[in-house]
Amino acid sequence: MKPIKTLQLGKNKITPNFIEQLRKLFEKEELIKISILKSACRNKKEAEKLGDELVKSLGKKFNYKLIGYVLAIRKFRKNQR
């Protein structure tokens, strides 16, 4: 079992460079965890908005689950609805 890749999302929030870094990681990975730092958001609703925005910018093959302030983003083989 290989370790799960983790990233941190800070005060710059979602930038084109961050999305490009995620796309490169998803070429080899199926699951990536992103820790949302306090400087990025203050409550769960903002964290959900960040998750929605990330998945929207990555494409239809991605889905996320918010656990605390950690986003677990998964890539699927087929497009999601």
Q: Main attributes?
A:
alpha+beta; 4 strands; four-stranded mixed β-sheet; 81 residues; 2 helices; single chain; Translation Initiation Factor IF3; 28% strand
Topology:
Elements: E1 5-9, H1 16-26, E2 31-36, H2 44-58, E3 62-67, E4 70-75
Parallel strand pairs: 1-2
Antiparallel strand pairs: 2-4, 3-4
Give the gist of this structure.
This protein is an alpha+beta fold. The chain has helices at 16-26, 44-58, and strands at 5-9, 31-36, 62-67, 70-75. The protein has a 4-stranded mixed beta sheet with strand order 1-2-4-3, covered by helices on one side.
Report on the structure:
It is built from two helices and four strands; from the N terminus they run E-H-E-H-E-E. It has a four-stranded mixed beta sheet with strand order 1-2-4-3, with helices on one face. It has a single domain (5-75), classed as Translation Initiation Factor IF3, CATH 3.30.110.60. Strand 1, helix 1 (16-26) and strand 2 (31-36) form a beta-alpha-beta unit. It is globular. The protein is an alpha+beta fold and 81 residues long. The chain starts with a strand and ends in a 6-residue tail after the last strand. The model has no long low-confidence stretch (mean pLDDT 90).
